[in-house]
Each structure stands twice: as structure tokens, then as C-alpha cells.
Fold this sequence. Notes:
Structural class: mainly beta
Number of domains: 1
Helix content: under 10%
Radius of gyration: 16 Å
Strand order of the largest sheet: 2-6-7-14-10-8
Order of helices and strands: EHEEEEEEHEEEEEEEEE
Distance between the termini: 25 Å
Shape: globular
Amino acid sequence: xxxxxxxxxxxQGFNFEKDNQDRVxxxxxxxxxxxxxxxxxxxxxxENVSDSSGPKIVGVMQNIRWEGGYGDPILFSCNISNxxxxxxxxxxxxxxSDTSVEFKFSVYDYDPEKKQYYKCMHSNxxxxxxxxxxxxxxxxxxxxxxPSHEIPSPKNYGFDLGVxxxxxxxxxxVHLAVSTSDKFAKQFGVPVx
Length: 193
């Protein structure tokens, strides 16, 4: 099974430059244990750079990895706002009895032949449902106590999360592409009959 492992540019994600073709990724929405994180980071949509008021997202991605099997977790690292940092840090230090996760994401790569960005890995604007991934008895979720030095403003913090598909989520898919025209989808989770 082929895995997908995409490194993304934090700098390009926060401060998009039209003449730079670095890969970028966005956590578009994220709910953990029923608590929704704010979409409070304004970014440029790489597929529509002329729109100066791009989308507001939860996190600018550093990395995302998925081994490609329907039961494999999606692991990602992103940078989140100060407000979302406080929400996550409080959750980590108090209670995580509800480990449910709902999220949407998009990773954009540049097609040098077509000279445009395309989505190389994404949830197709569909909410993926899962649970915080457990590894060795520990939940794969953490947030940095120190703000990022790479992008000093707006204040932001590194955040890591692993999400495995929920048993009762039904059929979901991760959409992948290797160019603007070469696209395919792979199952995430097991359909419930």
C-alpha cells in the first residue's frame, strides 16, 4: 500500500507568495471531543490567489502522513492560533474522556506543466470522523508550550494530532492527486452495513 507523506511550507501557508511554488496545507475545520476550534487564521487559497480575502482556517499545515490503508490513522502537524492553543492546552490538562474528532483538510501542490496549484490530498470538503489515535497507550495529540519562531506574527503554536477512523463513521474517502488531472480516492474507515 502506497503511503502519502507531504511536508508543507509554514511560511508559504501564512504569507502566500505567487512566485513561490512550495506545497501548502490547511486544516479547514477541526472538532475534538465536541469542542470546535475556531477558523481564525486568514490565508490565501492557492487555487484562487486573486481573491484577497481567502478562507479562514484552523491550522496551517507543516506535515501530513497517511499509510493509505482504510484503518490507518492520518497524522498531521500544523500551527494554530493563540486562542486555539489555549483551548487545546486546557483540554490536554483536564479531561479527554471524549476522543472523537471531526475534521476537513486540503493540501495543495504545484503542477509545473499547468503552472497552477491543485489539491494533492484532501477530504473533498467532507467532514472526516474519527478518534484520537492511540499509540502505546498514549493519545497522539500535543501542542507546543512555546510560540513558533518561524512565523512570529500572528502568534501561533505547533500542534500534532493523529486521527484513526471511527467504527461507526460510515464510508469516507481521502482524495489524492499527482497533477491537476491525475486524481483518485482511497477509502478511510470501514463502511458499516
